[in-house]
Amino acid sequence: MLSGSLVAIITPMNLHGEIDFPALRQLVEYHVASGSHGLVAVGTTGESPTLDEQEHLAVVETVLEAADGRVPVIAGCGGNDTRRAIALCRRLKALGVTQGLSVTPYYNKPTQEGLYRHFATIGEASGLAQILYNVPGRTGCDLQPDTVARLSHQYGICGIKEATGDLQRLPRLKAACGTGFSLLSGDDASACDFMLQGGHGVISVTANVAAAQMARLCQLALAGEAEQALALNQVLMPVHQALFVESNPIPVKWACARLGLIADSGLRLPLTPLSASWHGQLEMALTQAELLTRA
Known about the structure:
Elements: E1 4-8, H1 21-34, E2 38-41, H2 53-67, E3 73-76, H3 82-95, E4 99-103, H4 112-126, E5 129-134, H5 136-139, H6 145-152, E6 157-162, H7 169-177, E7 182-185, H8 188-196, E8 201-204, H9 211-222, H10 226-242, H11 250-258, H12 279-288
Parallel strand pairs: 1-2, 1-8, 2-3, 3-4, 4-5, 5-6, 6-7, 7-8
């Protein structure tokens, strides 16, 4: 079962929007050396909407090769067309991926029964274990706990990334989904409380810039060391918040470049570089968390 700090790794790009594969390999080394418990490639933070399928597969293959079995690699595999999602899952499985992150369908506005059938069909037909990804703030589609409970007992469904930040959902999920089902937060700001209340880990944006700290936070929270976990989370809270002053991954790419983890903070339209008005707040947050040395 997946647990701990699973980094939603960025896809580094140059200023022309071309993928920087050497930088991606260096990021994998940074996360392995820093103790991250897993890597999630080509999710929302990895800019999946603007990568074509060949680029998507190439990024995942690069992360797999660089990780070399040292940490689990989860690949973004979802979509709003069930048939195409299954086809992508099968291609990812052929690369060696064993678990995929499958986002709720966007724009279609399926019912809860439609969501159930969508994920159950993918789990059954694709051969790739599915981590459900509920992020209604982006998709306009909310996978309700009762539907998650139904899916948790279906073949091929192994966990959920719950990105609503609503901690009231966690007890219902824990009670209904069974012990082998991974409950992962998708919201860094509430992830510590999520784990202290029985969740298993977090798929983290903050871990892109604070890999060792997020790994330590998860270890403390999962061990029930609440006082230490909450204290560390308080140090990181300005970073959790600053990384969402504009749409993810705009701020985290800027922060990675500012910390020297990547050379450029390149993005693809319609995303644009971080507005200059936010640079000071993000620098302050990184400095307060002792990620950036004071000048």
